[in-house]
Amino acid sequence: METAVINLYSIFESMRAQVDVLSESIEPQFIQMALNFEDSRRKWLRLEQELNACKEVLTKAETERGALEVKLKHARNQVDVEIRRRQKAEADCAKLDRQIQLIRELLVTEGSSNSIQLNEEQRSALAFLNARSQNPASIHSTRLTTIDESASILSDISYDKTDDSLDWDSSAIRAVRLKKRQKRVITFSQGNESLVAKTTVTVPADGGPIEAVTTVEAVPYWTRSRRKTGKTEPSTPQGNGGVRLHEFVSKTVIKPESCVPCGKRIKFGKISLRCRDCRVVSHPECRERCPLPCIPTMTGTPVKSEEGILANYVSTSSPMIPSLVVHCVNEIEQRGLHETGLYRVSGSDRVVKDLKEKFLRGKTIPLLSKVEDIHAITGLLKDFLRNLKEPLLTFRLNRAFMDAAELSDDDNSIALMYQNISDLPQPSRDTLAFLIIHLQRVAQSKDTKMDITNLARVFGPTIVGHAVPDPDPMTILQDTKRQPKVIERLLGLPVEYWSQFMISDNNQGRSDHMIIENFNVHATPDHKTSMFGPLTTPDQQMSKTPSSSSLSQRMKNATLNAITPKFSSRSRAAVSVHRQGHFFASPLLK
């Protein structure tokens, strides 16, 4: 019994000792825990208050945003209304301007057969109609340039006349901008006019009747001595020798049209030039800036939004280059050769899509000069080439080009490149030559910061592509490393080699008939004389003196020349014959 009591007592003492250990200094710890809980509660309360404040601010901001969106919608509607009003006002102004111009020509113009004889009192009352034509500033700012119908297509230099305004002061430029809708009514003195003549004679080889067409125009004289800017880079291709040129026909504008090179409207009653083949329209002073080579309008161009093969977009005669490529390249070379990151910077996808739709489905050529972002035009060119069903180097020759580019021996590599290029279809070969000449010029421009290596990386997938229509990911990865090498090899070939593909079929002799043009009028005559016999002016009468250079004698020589091999090849002989300018005298005009 005593043993059990002792055991119980020992257990009680042990439990008591443990309780003492647990209860020793426990109050400060509980107090500290309570303080921590209180601190956490205060932080939670503060965050809750901040959350409520942020919610109130958000609600207020959403309310303000809704109000601003409503205001923006009303502002947009108001802008649309104002734009329509402005367009209507401009149309009314242009209509009234044309009416005033017709009235002025009918009442005031002197020396016209349709003018009405007015006395001095009536003329003074109608003097306001001729006020603008007497303003020297307007004469200087809207002065037309000389139309060199007779010899411009023989020149190897493409003159760009857009820099004539660079020597104006800023006040003159501001004045022109303020009066950009003013109709150009200019009175030219006799000393500022020149006679320009063009005679076209068609000699059928089968002995049919001979046709001769002569055009005589008096146009304002323009001198190149005003050019004060530095030398401009020629457009693709360099020089016009052998390149398909435009065959312009002059006409009086009835329905206003837009000039393709400058993008400005050609107003009612003005003279415009239209190419017989490609239908490009321009001012007479903008003819030198029309894109070359001339690509005849295709009648069978696909109208679907998706693209086909390259041959669907080219003409049937050399050079076989899509019109879209020609216009894009010429616009890029006019405005983009000083743009940093050309072809590397992407343009607006929406603008590219709209331009592509207009090129592929539209009836007229869109005015690229009105596209402000040059990168959108480069994007259009890359998108067109990239989305062709067959790449430019074709599926058949894709591997051959890649293998030739990877050869370590430069001579063998270049030789294989020449061979592969000659095996390309003519549309692919001509388009490739046109693009390579353009890219070489881009690489030469230091402002673009696009050397051959950078251009090869950009155009490798676009021009070279793959050997199959739907490559697998591994093939794409392997070809991506090889494609730039092909472009580098192509860009390394001389420009003289590529230029031979730009020669037009028009330089070769034609078996059915031959067209001879009179190019012996190269400059403005020193004084007003008639070069065509009985054609006279009001102040002088001229008559033609018979000479040995009669039309019949010249036609006999031309007939003999038609059977000689002078025009049987693309040699320089064909060009040199035109440059002599002594085929025949101009026929008599009746």
UniProtKB/TrEMBL annotation:
Q: Coiled-coil stretches, from where to where?
A: 58-106
A GO MF term: zinc ion binding
Topological relation to the membrane, as annotated: Peripheral membrane protein
Q: Where is this region: Disordered?
A: 532-553
- Give the record's keywords alphabetically: Acetylation, Cell cycle, Cell division, Cell membrane, Coiled coil, Cytoplasm, Cytoplasmic vesicle, Cytoskeleton, Developmental protein, Differentiation, GTPase activation, Ion transport, Isopeptide bond, Lipid-binding, Membrane, Metal-binding, Nucleus, Phosphoprotein, Spermatogenesis, Transport, Ubl conjugation, Zinc, Zinc-finger
Which Gene3D superfamilies does this one have? 3.30.60.20, Rho GTPase activation protein (1.10.555.10)
- InterPro entries the UniProt entry points to: C1-like_sf, PKC_DAG/PE, Rho_GTPase_activation_prot, RhoGAP_dom
Phorbol-ester/DAG-type domain location: 245-294
User: A cellular component term (GO) from this record?
Assistant: midbody
Residue stretches of biased makeup (Polar residues): 537-553
- Record flagged with keyword Ion transport: yes
Gene Ontology biological process terms, A to Z: cell differentiation; mitotic cytokinesis; mitotic spindle midzone assembly; monoatomic ion transport; Rho protein signal transduction; spermatogenesis
Keyword Phosphoprotein among UniProt keywords:
yes
The subcellular localization recorded is: Cell membrane; Cleavage furrow; Cytoplasm, Cytoskeleton, Spindle; Cytoplasmic vesicle, Secretory vesicle, Acrosome
Residues of the Rho-GAP domain: 308-498
Protein's name according to its UniProt entry: Rac GTPase-activating protein 1
Give the species: Cyprinus carpio carpio
